[in-house]
Design brief:
single chain; alpha+beta; Type 1 dockerin domain; 2 domains; five-stranded antiparallel sheet; two-stranded antiparallel ribbon; 7 strands
């Protein structure tokens, strides 16, 4: 980190894929990427903001390069409906990496996957 209280340090301006912010008297570089949520794709999002809305964050990419629509229907068992069966699969694989219950494909079955199942309850369209 770079200490500073006046203007932004020279040579450390905003570059593609990252921004500089002043936090607590220190300059901090935050990398931007894409955040996939059940509502679609948000571009130029920092990871912390994406996590706060239970999204899946991808660095160094754009909405044109990633298909967030894959997250529209987390029907894990393939019966055409997001229901209690899918919810029980998420619970059974809780904390597991590389599982079909990792519906947001972030590498682990956690609360984000559970929220995606509950948020898409009902028949897949």
């Amino acid at each position: 980190m770079i200490r500073g209280s006046m203007g932004q340090p020279e040579g450390l301006g905003t570059q593609a894929g990252n921004t500089l912010t002043l936090q607590g008297g220190f300059w901090s570089r935050q990398f931007t990427g894409v955040c996939c949520t059940i509502d679609g794709c948000d571009s130029e999002t920092i990871e912390q903001d994406c996590d706060s809305i239970n999204g899946t964050w991808y660095a160094d990419t754009s909405c044109e390069e990633i298909d967030c629509d894959l997250f529209d229907c987390p029907d894990i068992n393939g019966d055409g409906t997001v229901n209690v069966s899918d919810l029980l699969i998420v619970i059974a694989y809780w904390g597991s990496p590389g599982s079909p219950a990792d519906v947001n494909e972030d590498g682990i079955v956690d609360v984000s996957d559970l929220l995606m199942v509950v948020g898409n309850w009902g028949p897949c369209e």
